[in-house]
């Protein structure tokens, strides 16, 4: 077995994934399995901007878990990759030098382990989308194709689109049916297992669910001209004091800072319809420099095929018991009901769920619906094409697997030139032909040689 480690340094926390695969089948599709995922206790590495050394130290426990999971003799040959996503993208926009220091501290810590350290970097939103798409299609077995030497079985499976919702950004990636390519920066060309894929992808920075909430609240404060907000996206009776540092301390919201007040008081009113109306403002549909757009002047081809929706799309829809609901109007009804429940009731019903998550499910659910419907253009007709999923065949749906497959060159561009027959069939056919040849020789001998002998005997 071979092993690989990928650290997903997200905006809210870091996850350490350990994968393994049989060495002799490295280039086959679907052979890589996730054997472990460890969530680092504490916030994402971007939160350590004031105490950079701690960013590296925070990974210790999960890296020790990886050390235990991977057999000692494999440690030296196990590559370790760290990819940081939107939390670090935002930090580097804010202060590039500090972002570099955080990455350096993480690198220093990772080099202390007996693995083959391969680098820490901030991946682009486009890469995050594309690797998520590769991951889920690899796990679903959609890259499997019949070999080119069998001309009658050239069936290629359709791929599934990928929808990823993190804390700071969100990605949409799919293979469009039409070939309109008005915005080359939104397309990536892949040649995988002998087939070319032209994939559309876009990452919306600040539209992950945590930054989207801040963006909305910062706008609300600006529009209301007050730091005392009545908010329909929180359950009635919910009251929260949010620090201005928390609200405006990101490049997504910094420009909205108007007041010197150090706190914003939020009081929930729990009204799904008002919440959705309020959130719709975040998706500018009025201007589009292309023939089609999703929102905020971003090109998007017509949606096509099925989509796997993971990360926070799954966490939130799973909490609301909506992962298998294919009827969009029922999804809305459930959300309406949940949002109107009093905060006291919600807390009593779900005493074991983190208060931060619980208090935000009304907002997050409504945001997800608005993003998918208003933003990307899903309707009641194709809502059923979205599959909210956490894992596929035992591995978490995340960009990490695709990242590792790419960096280890484990997805060949061309189909491996496999012999037309398996070894067993080849041996079988050789035996059969040898037997036939021997039979022909024997019959020939009987026919031509033996009768002449017999004739001689008669004379
Ligand atoms: N059980 C959960 N319920 C609701 N939200 C969650 C849950 N687990 C994680 N989240 C949130 O979902 C978002 C995406 O999580 P993740 O993919 O781990 O994020 P990131 O990569 O942005 O750190 C984050 O905002 C995180 O706080």
Automatic annotation (TrEMBL):
The keyword Ubl conjugation does not apply. GO terms for biological process: nucleoside diphosphate catabolic process. GO terms for molecular function: apyrase activity; ATP binding; GDP phosphatase activity; ribonucleoside triphosphate phosphatase activity; UDP phosphatase activity. Its cofactor is Mg(2+); Ca(2+). It holds the Pfam family GDA1_CD39. The active site is at residue 128. Its EC number is 3.6.1.5. It catalyses: GDP + H2O = GMP + phosphate + H(+); CTP + H2O = CDP + phosphate + H(+); ITP + H2O = IDP + phosphate + H(+); ADP + H2O = AMP + phosphate + H(+). It is a multi-pass membrane protein. InterPro entries: GDA1_CD39_NTPase. Keywords: ATP-binding, Calcium, Disulfide bond, Glycoprotein, Hydrolase, Magnesium, Membrane, Nucleotide-binding, Transmembrane, Transmembrane helix. It is found in: Membrane, Caveola; Membrane. GO terms for cellular component: caveola. It is an enzyme of class 3 (hydrolase). ATP binds at residues 167-171. The chain crosses the membrane at residues 426-449. PANTHER family: ADENOSINE/GUANOSINE DIPHOSPHATASE (PTHR11782), ECTONUCLEOSIDE TRIPHOSPHATE DIPHOSPHOHYDROLASE 1 (PTHR11782:SF32). Homodimer; disulfide-linked. Catalyzes the hydrolysis of both di- and triphosphate nucleotides (NDPs and NTPs) and hydrolyze NTPs to nucleotide monophosphates (NMPs) in two distinct successive phosphate-releasing steps, with NDPs as intermediates and participates in the regulation of extracellular levels of nucleotides. By hydrolyzing proinflammatory ATP and platelet-activating ADP to AMP, it blocks platelet aggregation and supports blood flow. Belongs to the GDA1/CD39 NTPase family. This is Ectonucleoside triphosphate diphosphohydrolase 1. The lineage of its organism: Eukaryota, Metazoa, Chordata, Craniata, Vertebrata.
């Amino acid at each position: 077995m071979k092993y690989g480690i990928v650290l997903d340094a997200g905006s809210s926390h870091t996850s350490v994934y350990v994968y393994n695969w049989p060495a002799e089948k490295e280039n086959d599709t679907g052979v890589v399995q996730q054997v472990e995922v460890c969530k680092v206790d504490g916030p994402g590495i971007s939160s350590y901007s004031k105490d950079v050394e701690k960013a590296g130290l925070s990974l210790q426990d999960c890296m020790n878990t990886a050390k235990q999971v991977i057999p000692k003799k494999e440690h030296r040959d196990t590559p370790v990759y760290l990819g940081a996503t939107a939390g670090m993208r935002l930090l580097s926009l804010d202060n590039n030098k500090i972002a570099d220091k955080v990455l350096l501290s993480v690198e220093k810590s990772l080099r202390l382990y007996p693995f083959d350290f391969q680098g820490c970097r901030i991946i682009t939103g486009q890469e995050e989308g594309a690797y998520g798409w590769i991951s889920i299609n690899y796990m679903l077995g959609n890259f499997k194709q019949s070999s080119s030497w069998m001309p009658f079985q050239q069936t290629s499976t359709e791929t599934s689109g990928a929808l990823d919702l993190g804390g700071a950004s969100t990605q949409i990636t799919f293979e469009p049916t039409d070939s309109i390519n008005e915005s080359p920066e939104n397309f990536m060309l892949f040649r995988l297992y002998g087939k070319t894929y032209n994939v559309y992808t876009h990452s919306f920075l600040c539209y992950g669910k945590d930054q989207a909430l801040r963006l909305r609240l910062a706008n609300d404060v600006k529009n209301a001209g007050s730091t005392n907000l009545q908010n329909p996206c929180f359950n009635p009776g919910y009251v929260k004091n949010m620090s201005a540092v928390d609200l405006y301390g990101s490049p997504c919201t910094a420009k909205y800072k108007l007041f010197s007040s150090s706190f914003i008081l939020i009081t929930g009113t729990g009204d799904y319809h008002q919440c959705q109306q309020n959130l719709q403002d975040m998706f500018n549909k009025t201007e589009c420099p292309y023939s089609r757009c999703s929102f905020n002047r971003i090109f998007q081809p017509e949606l096509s095929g099925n989509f796997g929706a993971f990360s926070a799309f799954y966490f939130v829809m799973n909490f609301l018991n909506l992962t298998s609901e294919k009827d969009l109007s029922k999804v809305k009804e459930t959300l309406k009901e949940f949002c109107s429940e009093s905060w006291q009731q919600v807390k009593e019903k779900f005493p074991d769920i983190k208060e931060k998550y619980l208090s935000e499910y009304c907002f997050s659910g409504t945001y997800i619906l608005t993003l998918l419907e208003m933003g990307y253009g899903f309707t009641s007709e194709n809502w059923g094409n979205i599959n909210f999923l956490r894992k596929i065949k035992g591995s978490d749906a995340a960009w990490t697997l695709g990242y590792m497959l790419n960096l280890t060159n484990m997805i060949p561009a061309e189909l491996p030139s496999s012999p037309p027959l398996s070894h067993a069939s080849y041996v079988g056919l050789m035996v059969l032909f040898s037997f036939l040849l021997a039979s022909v020789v024997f019959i020939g001998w009987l026919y031509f040689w033996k009768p002449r002998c017999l004739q001689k005997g008669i004379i």
